[in-house]
Fold this protein.
Amino acid sequence: MLNKSVNFGILGLLVALSLTNSVQAQEHEHSPSTPAGMTNTMRQQMGDQRFITMMIHHDQKTLKMADLAIQKAKNPQIKALATQIKIDQTQEIEQLQALYKQLYGSEVPANTMNCMGMGQGMGQGMGQGMGGMMSLESLENSPNFDQEFVQRMSHHQQMSVNMASKAAENANVLQIRNLAQAIIKTQTAQIQQLQQLYPAKS
Protein backbone atom coordinates (compact mmCIF):
# COMPACT_ATOMS: atom_id res chain seq x y z
CA MET A 1 0.00 0.00 0.00
CA LEU A 2 2.84 2.35 0.86
CA ASN A 3 4.54 1.61 -2.48
CA LYS A 4 1.34 2.46 -4.34
CA SER A 5 1.05 5.75 -2.49
CA VAL A 6 4.66 6.64 -3.31
CA ASN A 7 4.13 5.76 -6.96
CA PHE A 8 0.97 7.88 -7.17
CA GLY A 9 2.81 10.74 -5.49
CA ILE A 10 5.69 10.61 -7.97
CA LEU A 11 3.26 10.37 -10.87
CA GLY A 12 1.38 13.44 -9.61
CA LEU A 13 4.62 15.40 -9.27
CA LEU A 14 5.65 14.55 -12.85
CA VAL A 15 2.25 15.63 -14.20
CA ALA A 16 2.46 18.92 -12.29
CA LEU A 17 5.96 19.65 -13.62
CA SER A 18 4.83 18.84 -17.15
CA LEU A 19 1.88 21.26 -16.89
CA THR A 20 4.10 24.00 -15.44
CA ASN A 21 6.62 23.68 -18.28
CA SER A 22 3.82 23.76 -20.83
CA VAL A 23 2.36 26.98 -19.37
CA GLN A 24 5.79 28.64 -19.21
CA ALA A 25 6.48 27.73 -22.84
CA GLN A 26 3.14 29.22 -23.92
CA GLU A 27 3.82 32.41 -21.95
CA HIS A 28 7.24 32.74 -23.60
CA GLU A 29 5.78 32.28 -27.07
CA HIS A 30 3.29 35.08 -26.46
CA SER A 31 5.49 37.41 -24.45
CA PRO A 32 5.97 41.03 -25.69
CA SER A 33 9.59 40.32 -26.54
CA THR A 34 8.61 37.42 -28.78
CA PRO A 35 5.37 38.36 -30.64
CA ALA A 36 3.16 35.43 -31.51
CA GLY A 37 3.51 34.35 -35.12
CA MET A 38 6.74 36.26 -35.80
CA THR A 39 9.19 34.11 -37.74
CA ASN A 40 12.97 34.41 -37.88
CA THR A 41 12.61 35.76 -41.43
CA MET A 42 10.32 38.53 -40.20
CA ARG A 43 12.78 39.44 -37.45
CA GLN A 44 15.63 39.58 -39.97
CA GLN A 45 13.58 41.80 -42.28
CA MET A 46 12.86 44.19 -39.40
CA GLY A 47 16.58 44.26 -38.62
CA ASP A 48 17.41 45.08 -42.25
CA GLN A 49 14.82 47.88 -42.34
CA ARG A 50 16.08 49.24 -39.02
CA PHE A 51 19.65 49.35 -40.29
CA ILE A 52 18.68 51.36 -43.39
CA THR A 53 16.57 53.89 -41.47
CA MET A 54 19.11 54.28 -38.68
CA MET A 55 21.97 54.76 -41.13
CA ILE A 56 20.03 57.43 -43.03
CA HIS A 57 19.32 59.25 -39.77
CA HIS A 58 23.00 58.99 -38.82
CA ASP A 59 24.16 60.25 -42.22
CA GLN A 60 21.80 63.22 -42.06
CA LYS A 61 23.49 64.33 -38.85
CA THR A 62 26.85 63.84 -40.57
CA LEU A 63 25.76 66.29 -43.28
CA LYS A 64 24.90 68.91 -40.66
CA MET A 65 28.30 68.48 -39.01
CA ALA A 66 30.05 68.71 -42.39
CA ASP A 67 28.13 71.90 -43.24
CA LEU A 68 29.36 73.48 -40.00
CA ALA A 69 32.95 72.55 -40.85
CA ILE A 70 32.66 74.00 -44.35
CA GLN A 71 31.47 77.27 -42.80
CA LYS A 72 33.62 77.51 -39.67
CA ALA A 73 36.82 75.46 -40.03
CA LYS A 74 40.06 77.43 -40.25
CA ASN A 75 42.17 74.60 -41.64
CA PRO A 76 41.58 74.30 -45.41
CA GLN A 77 42.27 70.56 -45.22
CA ILE A 78 39.35 70.19 -42.82
CA LYS A 79 37.11 72.20 -45.14
CA ALA A 80 38.13 70.01 -48.08
CA LEU A 81 37.58 66.79 -46.13
CA ALA A 82 34.20 68.01 -44.84
CA THR A 83 33.19 68.76 -48.43
CA GLN A 84 34.18 65.24 -49.52
CA ILE A 85 32.38 63.71 -46.55
CA LYS A 86 29.24 65.62 -47.53
CA ILE A 87 29.47 64.31 -51.10
CA ASP A 88 30.00 60.73 -49.92
CA GLN A 89 27.22 60.83 -47.30
CA THR A 90 24.72 62.41 -49.70
CA GLN A 91 25.39 59.61 -52.17
CA GLU A 92 25.11 57.04 -49.39
CA ILE A 93 21.72 58.40 -48.28
CA GLU A 94 20.46 58.22 -51.86
CA GLN A 95 21.65 54.60 -52.15
CA LEU A 96 20.00 53.65 -48.86
CA GLN A 97 16.72 55.32 -49.83
CA ALA A 98 16.71 53.64 -53.24
CA LEU A 99 17.47 50.26 -51.69
CA TYR A 100 14.68 50.68 -49.14
CA LYS A 101 12.19 51.47 -51.92
CA GLN A 102 13.44 48.54 -54.01
CA LEU A 103 13.14 46.07 -51.12
CA TYR A 104 10.00 47.30 -49.38
CA GLY A 105 8.08 49.14 -52.11
CA SER A 106 7.81 52.52 -50.38
CA GLU A 107 9.77 55.58 -49.33
CA VAL A 108 11.49 55.52 -45.94
CA PRO A 109 8.81 56.64 -43.44
CA ALA A 110 9.58 59.96 -41.78
CA ASN A 111 8.54 58.68 -38.35
CA THR A 112 10.37 55.36 -38.58
CA MET A 113 13.09 56.35 -36.10
CA ASN A 114 10.79 56.25 -33.08
CA CYS A 115 8.67 53.23 -33.98
CA MET A 116 11.58 50.97 -34.86
CA GLY A 117 13.44 51.38 -31.59
CA MET A 118 16.04 54.07 -32.06
CA GLY A 119 18.54 54.00 -29.23
CA GLN A 120 18.50 50.19 -29.01
CA GLY A 121 20.63 47.51 -30.59
CA MET A 122 22.79 48.88 -33.37
CA GLY A 123 21.80 52.46 -32.61
CA GLN A 124 22.93 52.67 -28.99
CA GLY A 125 24.68 55.90 -28.21
CA MET A 126 23.47 57.77 -31.29
CA GLY A 127 22.53 61.41 -30.64
CA GLN A 128 18.98 62.27 -31.64
CA GLY A 129 16.19 64.75 -31.05
CA MET A 130 17.07 67.65 -28.74
CA GLY A 131 20.25 65.87 -27.65
CA GLY A 132 21.49 65.78 -31.24
CA MET A 133 20.69 69.47 -31.78
CA MET A 134 22.44 70.47 -28.54
CA SER A 135 25.46 68.48 -29.65
CA LEU A 136 25.59 70.39 -32.93
CA GLU A 137 25.15 73.68 -31.09
CA SER A 138 28.01 72.92 -28.72
CA LEU A 139 30.19 71.98 -31.69
CA GLU A 140 29.35 75.24 -33.44
CA ASN A 141 30.29 77.24 -30.33
CA SER A 142 33.45 75.30 -29.52
CA PRO A 143 36.47 77.61 -28.91
CA ASN A 144 38.66 75.21 -30.91
CA PHE A 145 36.25 74.23 -33.66
CA ASP A 146 38.73 72.40 -35.90
CA GLN A 147 39.96 70.01 -33.25
CA GLU A 148 36.48 69.48 -31.80
CA PHE A 149 35.06 68.73 -35.24
CA VAL A 150 37.77 66.18 -36.01
CA GLN A 151 37.25 64.37 -32.71
CA ARG A 152 33.46 64.33 -32.96
CA MET A 153 33.34 63.37 -36.61
CA SER A 154 35.84 60.57 -36.02
CA HIS A 155 33.62 59.19 -33.25
CA HIS A 156 30.47 59.70 -35.33
CA GLN A 157 31.91 57.85 -38.31
CA GLN A 158 33.19 55.05 -36.09
CA MET A 159 29.61 54.50 -34.94
CA SER A 160 28.61 54.16 -38.60
CA VAL A 161 31.35 51.59 -39.12
CA ASN A 162 30.14 49.65 -36.08
CA MET A 163 26.55 49.57 -37.34
CA ALA A 164 27.64 48.63 -40.85
CA SER A 165 29.85 45.85 -39.51
CA LYS A 166 26.85 44.27 -37.79
CA ALA A 167 24.75 44.63 -40.93
CA ALA A 168 27.50 43.14 -43.10
CA GLU A 169 27.49 40.10 -40.84
CA ASN A 170 23.80 39.72 -40.04
CA ALA A 171 21.72 41.28 -42.84
CA ASN A 172 19.32 38.95 -44.60
CA VAL A 173 19.65 40.72 -47.96
CA LEU A 174 22.78 40.58 -50.11
CA GLN A 175 22.42 44.19 -51.34
CA ILE A 176 22.41 45.42 -47.74
CA ARG A 177 25.51 43.39 -46.88
CA ASN A 178 27.30 44.77 -49.95
CA LEU A 179 26.32 48.36 -49.15
CA ALA A 180 27.39 47.88 -45.54
CA GLN A 181 30.82 46.72 -46.73
CA ALA A 182 31.13 49.82 -48.90
CA ILE A 183 30.18 52.04 -45.94
CA ILE A 184 32.86 50.39 -43.80
CA LYS A 185 35.50 51.00 -46.45
CA THR A 186 34.58 54.64 -47.14
CA GLN A 187 34.13 55.75 -43.55
CA THR A 188 37.17 53.91 -42.22
CA ALA A 189 39.24 55.87 -44.76
CA GLN A 190 37.57 59.11 -43.62
CA ILE A 191 38.40 58.35 -39.99
CA GLN A 192 42.04 57.79 -40.90
CA GLN A 193 42.16 61.12 -42.77
CA LEU A 194 40.58 62.96 -39.85
CA GLN A 195 42.96 61.47 -37.32
CA GLN A 196 45.94 62.49 -39.41
CA LEU A 197 44.85 66.12 -38.96
CA TYR A 198 44.45 65.88 -35.18
CA PRO A 199 45.79 62.62 -33.74
CA ALA A 200 43.75 61.36 -30.80
CA LYS A 201 45.22 62.17 -27.41
CA SER A 202 46.78 59.21 -25.61
